[in-house]
Amino acid sequence: MVVLNRAAAVRSLHLNGGLRRFWDFPPEGAAQDAPAIFMVHGFRGDHHGLLRIIEALPAHRVLVPDLPGFGQSEPLDGTHDVAAYAAFVRSSMDRLALGPQTVLVGHSFGSIIAARAAADAPGAFNALVLINPISAPALEGPSRIATRLAELYYRLGAALPERAGQAVLRNRMIVRATSELMAKTRDRPLRRWIHAQHRAYFSAFASREVVLQAFTASISATVRDSAALLHLPVLLIAAEKDDLGSVQTQQELAALMPDSTLVVLPEVGHLVHYEAPDAAAGHISDFVESRTR
Q1: Distances (CA, A) of 251 to 117, 221, 255, 257
Q2: For residue 52, what are the CA distances in angstroms to 2, 154, 288?
Q3: Over the stretch 282-293, which tens digit does the pLDDT of each residue have?
């Protein structure tokens, strides 16, 4: 059983054409000087997916939104692509009055968004952390067949009549199968908790069109697209068993960045935020501390 205790203020803002929800976790205890952290979750997730890492960063104020079209945030007026989501991150920074000492963190699809946001706004962030970064094109390499099947799945869900399409996209058996494939831990209680998280939050999308657009964006871009433009310190937290990015492609990605540090967590896959949150948070803390000495 995983217990999450850290409390947040829920902030609702009209931004980029709709209502957006942010969870604002104040620093705990006497710690007030550590830089704020802004986090971006991955595809089909919402803020819940990052809560275990947030729990392990008590010294920091942490802000995490539900991306537009997911969780409790309304969809964008236009297309849900990387550029639009990166613009949302930058607009959020302005409205939340977060200064250039802020550390930007992105997980999975959120790593693509965060990298683009940092590349598009030099000087807006103190540092960048990418967890399970998308280091290679999804339509290349060993996962290309699975990616094509997933693409057909999302296109079918969008093309069917509304009720049938919703049933396909929210099918619990498919969600469970996806969860089983991604989870690498052998800890049975943890696996049950991961599956429960996916069952509870993996289908919290606003519409079939939103989820198709976001999926298309997730397989059409990588962090490599922004890598050479990231003129700030970058920490990449990769995973040894990540099916969406091998250690080799993570090393190649790190080499494209002017100032990068790569750590690889052993025996973990694409769910670092669930399977190794304490390790990820420890690396984030050390990295941020090294930036503020």
Answers
A1: 22, 18, 6, 10
A2: 9, 29, 18
A3: 999 999 988 765
